[in-house]
Amino acid sequence: MVLHWFRRDLRLEDNAALAKAHASGHPVQPVFIFDRAILDRLEDTEDARVSFIYRELTRLKQEIAAQGGHLWVVYGDPLDWHRQWASDASIKGLYANRDYEPYAGQRDTAVHAVYQAEGKEAKWLKDHVMKEPKEVLKDDGNPYTVFTPYARKWRSQFVPEQIEAYPTPTGNWNTQVSPYEWPTLDSMGFTQNERQIPARTILTNTLAQYEAKRNFPALPTGTTRLGVHLRFGTLSIRALARSAYPEHGKFLTELIWRDFYQMILYFYPESPQKAIKPAYDRIEWERSEEHFVAWCKGKTGYPLVDAGMRELNATGFMHNRVRMVVASFLTKHLLLDWRLGEAYFAAKLMDFDLASNVGGWQWASGSGCDAAPYFRIFNPESQLEKFDKQLTYVKRWVPEYGTPYYAKPIVEHKMARERALARYKEGLASSSAGL
Description:
five-stranded parallel sheet; DNA Cyclobutane Dipyrimidine Photolyase, subunit A, domain 3; 19 helices; Rossmann fold; 3 domains; Serine Threonine Protein Phosphatase 5, Tetratricopeptide repeat; 435 residues; alpha/beta; globular
């Protein structure tokens, strides 16, 4: 038999590595490892993402059992588990889909070496993206750092066959009953979280209206809200692309942005800690714990910012337009380090994806690839007037808005804007002077 290692691809349908494993002719044994190194970084014992994964694994277990197979689920160090499996004479090899995050790359390189040492194959497939980091490069072989030429090159290389679905397996599973008892959430240090997750359904009406409605956070169908399903692979990126192509070009562009940020993280693996544009690490950030807490709790006195943060805290979701506004507010109005915001989003977002999260925060702060220029500072009041004029979104999340109980603004917009412009200019000037 051969193993298929589920990771960010929790589905049977349109799964590249799983399809290739079944095409090998060997019975397929699917496995999932709750990676202790990842879980140990989570501080919330009720983290809804862990519960979501657990529920999706239960669904997979049932789907595989209906075809006569069994899903093995274990907990611990993936390298230890793969050493055990690679040394098993009945296991001929491993299939898995690639992950481009720095930790995952190091882990998978070590796992590959384990199978290689046993004279067995470990095959890694493209599944999480439409175009891998090395597929769309400049003519000189270097990575793009500006989105528009990247997207132009991406589109020039694209043919519809690249997003065709892989066949769904219908049998040929290893029928051996699992020798491992499923770990419980409790045994891994977590408790069940029943947070409701949007269905993994692609609504064609949403795609058709996406360009016109995507910036209005009060509209429930303005965006697909499928980010969590892309993050954990319960929905294929190719399925979304097939729904978007060719009629819904704006939505397809957003999927290309996702590929772009995966590419950036691959070529700039230190970007979660360091500014991609080194000059921006010269900026002198403020250190107000009081302001950071007010931002986290949605008590800044700026209603669109507060609504977004409260939505995030309550649901694990935040509308993309609002993400840009709250990120700009933290880094420009409050002059707090973008890494604080990135870490908070990483802890709270159901659809947290390291590449997109880091890319988005560095964009907002001006320090990243194709970033907003430092002098672009969102005015949260004009953003509110433009995108939630009727206050529908704000009143949903900030019911005390308009009453004496609502917080007073913690900074004044004009002062904050001028301070940010001066501080950014000073930091960039000191970098240019080599200070």
